[in-house]
Structure formats: C-alpha cells, structure tokens
Amino acid sequence: MNLSDEQDALTSVRRLKQYSVDGVIVSSSTLPPEFSKAFRDAGVPVVNSFGRFSTTPDVHVVGVDNSECGSMAARELAARGYASVGFMGGPETATSTQDRFRGFSQELAKHPDVARRHSFASDYSFDAGRAEMQRLIADGPLAEAYFCGDDVLSIGALSALADAGLNVPRDIGIIGFNDMEMARWENINLTTIGQPIEQIIHSYVELIVAMLDDPDRYPEVRLFPCKMVERGTLRPVP
C-alpha cells in the first residue's frame, strides 16, 4: 500500500486491517515514526526500513547506515580532488535525507579545503531531481560534483545537465545512492552507492516470521554496510 500521502496513523492501521495483513514493512522515510508505532500497538508485526540506530528501538529496524553512506560519498569526492562539492537530497524532512546529509557534512568537515553546499529536492523523483538541478544551474555557479541522495534524483540531475550542455564527468561529477537497475543502463552509467538488497529483504522476512511466532519479541536494529559502485559519472582518482 502507498501511504506516502497519509496523514493519520490510525487511519492507516484501519486500511491495513481491511486486507488482513500478517505483517508490515514500512519502506518510506517520509512517514513519521508514529505510523510504525501505531501498527505495533495494533498488534501488527512491523519492520521499519528507514529507522535510525537505537539501543532501545520502538520497532524492528532493518536497513543501511545512512549517515555512514553519506560519509562514504564525501570521502569519495574528496579523494578524487574535487574542490567544491554539493549535497542534493530528497525532502528535507525525510530521515534518510537528514542522515545522509549529516554523514556527508561531518566527513567534509575533515576536509576544510573542500568548499561545500547543499540543497533539497521536493521529493524522491526524476522530475524533482531534474527541477532542482535546473534551479542550481540557473542560480550558478555549480559545484564541481554532487552527491544526490537517491539514484532517481541523480538521473533527473543528469538530464538537466545534459540539456544545459554540460558533460558528466568532464564538467560535473555525480554520485548517486541505491544502485537501482536504471543506474546500470549504458546511457546513464551512474557511479553510486549500493545497498545489500538481498540481505535486507532476508532480514525483513526473518523478523516478520519471528514476530508471528513471538509477538513480544524485543525490537532490534540491523544496519548493513553500503559499498561504492564505480561506473562513469565521476572523474578518476588523481
């Protein structure tokens, strides 16, 4: 179910119960934490895929360490000698955006010679990424490279840069996040940060089944590491 536009957690619980679901995986970083808690309180096994690390989580959390992934992107850009870099995230209120931006900023603080800036797209979509990069181009000057908080934002940004006559990676570097299938297309060839999707999905299923067997199971957090996926949208390491 798409609950991204839902405002009331209890309404979402009622909608889910109409389908007699056995468990819920919350895969939106824009939904408030209250939604996951409402599912839990209604007796529905729930796993949050965009939660944050905590020693006392309210619900089970499975995903990646978004802050570390942001740090990884910053390290990569600094290592390639970019003198100015930018973060182009999704919605500023999304926990995934906040965490990736925090890690990105903290890592760049170790590189005072690298100028940095940031901006946020209206949502995680091609159109939003394209529109935000068009705005950045119009406002100018651009950073030498950008970490886009999602592959779909990156692909939108690439479209805007191409329309402006800018070459990637010669003029501008782009690094994405997710390693979605389109990132591998020859005409996109996006350098990105990949997630261990198979491990994450296995943990989703494992925890949902475990909660069905033991409804009082204590919530845990499982965060998996990401990895750089080298393609063709960043200049080589000097």
CATH topology of the largest domain: Rossmann fold
- Structural category: alpha/beta
Architecture of the largest domain in CATH?
A: 3-Layer(aba) Sandwich
Largest sheet: 6 strands, mixed
Draw up the topology in text:
Elements: H1 9-17, E1 24-26, H2 33-41, E2 46-48, E3 60-64, H3 66-79, E4 84-89, H4 95-108, E5 115-120, H5 126-139, E6 145-148, H6 151-163, E7 173-178, E8 192-194, H7 197-213, E9 221-224, E10 227-229
Parallel strand pairs: 1-2, 2-3, 3-9, 4-5, 4-6, 6-7, 7-8
Antiparallel strand pairs: 8-10
Helix pairs in contact: 1-2, 3-4, 5-6
What are the salient characteristics of this protein?
Rossmann fold, Peripla_BP_I, 238 residues, alpha/beta, transcription regulation, 2 domains, 6-stranded mixed beta sheet, transcription
Please explain how this structure is put together.
This protein is of the alpha/beta class and 238 residues long. It has two domains: 9-65 and 196-225, Rossmann fold, CATH 3.40.50.2300; 66-194, Rossmann fold (3-Layer(aba) Sandwich). The chain has seven helices and ten strands. The chain has helices at residues 9-17, 33-41, 66-79, 95-108, 126-139, 151-163, 197-213; strands spanning 24-26, 46-48, 60-64, 84-89, 115-120, 145-148, 173-178, 192-194, 221-224, 227-229. The strands form two sheets. It has a six-stranded mixed beta sheet, sandwiched between helices. Helix 1 crosses helix 2. The termini are far apart. The relative contact order is 0.15. The mean pLDDT is 88.
